[in-house]
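Morning, I've got a small favour to ask if you have a moment. I owe you a coffee for this, so here goes:
>
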Amino acid sequence: MEKTTTFPLRYSAYALSIAGFVISLPVTLWLGYGYIVPAIFAVLTGVGTYDLIQTRHTVSRNYPIMANFRYLFESIGPEIRQYFIQSDTEERPFSREQRTIVYQRAKNVLDKRPFGSQLRMYEEGFEWMNHSLTPTRIADSDFRIVIGKNRSKPYSASVFNISAMSFGSLSANAILSLNTGAKMGSFYHDTGEGSISRYHLQPGGDLVWEIGSGYFGCRNKDGSFNADMFKQNAALDQVKMIELKLSQGAKPGHGGILPGAKVTPEIAEARGVSLGEDCVSPASHSEFSNPIEMLHFIDRLRELSGGKPVGFKLAIGHPWEWFGIVKAILETGIKPDFIVVDGGEGGTGAAPLEFINRLGMPMTEALLIVHNTLVATNLREDIAIGAAGKITSAFNIARTLALGADWCNAARGYMFALGCIQALNCHTGRCPSGIATQDPRRSNKLDVRHKSQRVYNFHKNTLDALQNLLEAAGLRHPSELGPEHVIRRTSRTEVHSYLDLYRFLEPGALLTGEKTGLTVFDKYWPEARADSFEPPHFIMKLRETKLR
């Protein structure tokens, strides 16, 4: 290849910096002015020289100095799009409209909108609720659902609660604010799998203690389950329910590790691990390996807790695994008091991109399969269902309850109430709002008194908005919401209610042995096993060959 002899224009910024330094330095010395101009040119020359001699970045070697502007603009691209380019209704992952309504309700300021909707009502996927010509009047928006009605210590839960977020993922002041707000509003605060910290206990708000595969707060040195530690924590009056975490929507089937350098004395105290040692959450539980064993473990937790409601949380993946759990319930007679369905759109502090975007069933489909299965096995009236997945408004709650849930949880919605600006820095420890960080220089700026009030306001004003929706629809309680109340546009000329759009199984339909007409049930329910999470035989055969 012939070598070019002309001066590359891409070196112009570097050449001009050198020329500027060579010219400005003697001129400055001669005139006796300050050295700021030659200093600027000297810095640019140094940057350009470094760009040329380093070997990591080819673009920098080819475009000395100029490439750094490219890296700068690339690094602030998300902020530029979020604050200057993104529309009010574009969800990335939450739209400005979604965040604004949370901010306004949390601050207890005007949350009304002028002129009309900005949503495209004739676009496929648009949803709404039908109203009634005979609206009702509801006395109070403190809507509640009883969980564990057959237990000695049932719990009356709000229909809108704080989803699982651990101390360690969130700062101490964030946990304090969330729990204080939960106490003020009489709704529950899920601890996350990081267990019960001093910051959960100090305010005194209701807790749902989540127990993951690391058994934090109830573990032996080797990571196995410790019944005595569990019994001690479960006996706390603040702990209203126990939630066994099987998987979460943002990263199902994925364990986690908190490096020892980040295990502070307070985190070690809450989780029952050694200071400075890696804190590991395995991908699966060590106390059980099949559905029947899992239910016996749940029954043991219920006994150790003194009769408090015990259930589990999961993101739906392979349908035969979920069906196996239900078959185990039927076989053993051991019924969890509740199931929390975590949608694939759920959030987390950090997860691989493929897990966040492409793994796990979204909440709508997951909730439908769980609700339908319990109805079709005559278990639905004994097992309550909670659901989580990008819930920030009263309509989000209403549509979720209409699909079969009894209550909803939210994590990021309550983070917005605390002041989260969706900076997408949760995994860096540099959260600008002091929420998702353990840096005290950042988290100490989060004022607990003000932020806890905002948490309370967000919950109260969202349920007030739900009350208004129910009244307009002619209903008296969220439990009356059904698939007939929510409508979705499927094309520019067609709309369908959820009742017509989705298939809902009849009570006992899976117990008769007859076909349901739904492929997922007809194909996988007969093959699911109560004693194993293993795939059906025909699935195993498919995995042995590409000849399908």
About this structure: The longest strand covers residues 239-245. The chain has 21 helices and 15 strands. The domain at 144-501 is CATH 3.20.20.70 (TIM Barrel). The radius of gyration is 28 Å.
